[in-house]
Give the backbone structure.
Amino acid sequence: QVQLVESGGDSVQAGGSLRLSCPASGSTGRQICMGWVRQVPGKEREGVGVIGSDGVVKYADSVKGRFTISRDNSKSTLYLQMNSLKTEDTANYYCVAKESFGGYCYNRDLRDPMEQFNYWGQGTQVTVSS
């Protein structure tokens, strides 16, 4: 079992920045793929980015060049640095994780996070105003 708790969500103006954090507890010694997923009410959850134990990161096209995912394995913590925020980035952001061979993440993890990830945080709200 892995427990995830997000923090850092806030209200900001367009063009601003935010940093989300997600410390993981529980069976974090296992190799796990981690990531961020977001959801706007009434829409499907969307993969934002994933990062493997090997540090390889995959991003959704909508956030490439603006968002940066990182993980500190010594602290079992996942981060999401969001720059140049747009109003369309407004959503509830979830930290996600799954155990995988070698801790690798795959393109399918980004495309279909609902199917791939079995550990989810409670979410943190990000609101971007114009």
